[in-house]
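Thread title: Can someone regenerate the structure for this chain?

I was given the following input by a collaborator and told the matching C-alpha cells would be attached. They weren't. Posting the sequence so someone can regenerate them.
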Amino acid sequence: MFTGVATYYGARVAEEQLQQSREEAERSMRSQAAQVAYWVEETQGPTRIHFANQSPNPISEVLLEFYLAEIRTEAGKRPIYERVNFFVTLESVAPCAEVTFDARDMKRHPDSGMPVKLAHLDGSFTVRYAAFKDREGSYWVRDDTGLARAKSKSEAFLANLVRPTAPAGTVTREWSGSVKSRPTEKPARACEATTTPGL
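Best answer:
Regenerated them for you:
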C-alpha cells in the first residue's frame, strides 16, 4: 500500500514538474515576441502609426497592415465607406527601436493617375496585424486578439486575408496606399536590455 501511494505522489510531482518546464519553455519562446507592439497615435497633429521592438535583439521580415477608413454622406445618396489599405514591409527593426509612420507621408493610389495625399480623408486608422520573425527564426503574428506563433512565414504573412467588411447600407470605395520608403526610427522609450544584442 505504501509503495502504491509513493508511486502515485511521485508521478504527480513528475507531472507537475513537466508542466512547469513546458510553461517555462513557452515563456522563453515568447519572450522576444511579447516585447513587440504597435499602436495608433491620434492627437491634434497628424496621426501616426507606431511599431516598436522593445527587445534587446533585432527582429526581421516585418509586415504591418493598417487602413484608414471614413464614412461620407451626401444628401439624397447612400453613405460612402472609403478605405485606404496599407501593407508595409521592413527588412528589419533594430533592438530597442520604434518605427513611426506619419499620415503626412502617406498617399492613396487611385485607379488611374498619380498617387494623391490623404488630405480629403479625416477618418480613423486601424492596425489589422503585424507579422515578424524573432531572433530564433520563429514567425509571430500580433493582432487585436493577442500574440500567436505561426508555423511558417506564409502562414504569418497570410494571417488576415479576410478584408474588413463595410458597414451595412454603404457603398464601398477602396484604394491601396503607400508610405515613404523608410519611416522615422528612434530609440524605444520603454526598453530594458537583458541580453546581448544578436544572441
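The CA atoms of residues 50 and 100 lie 5 Å apart.
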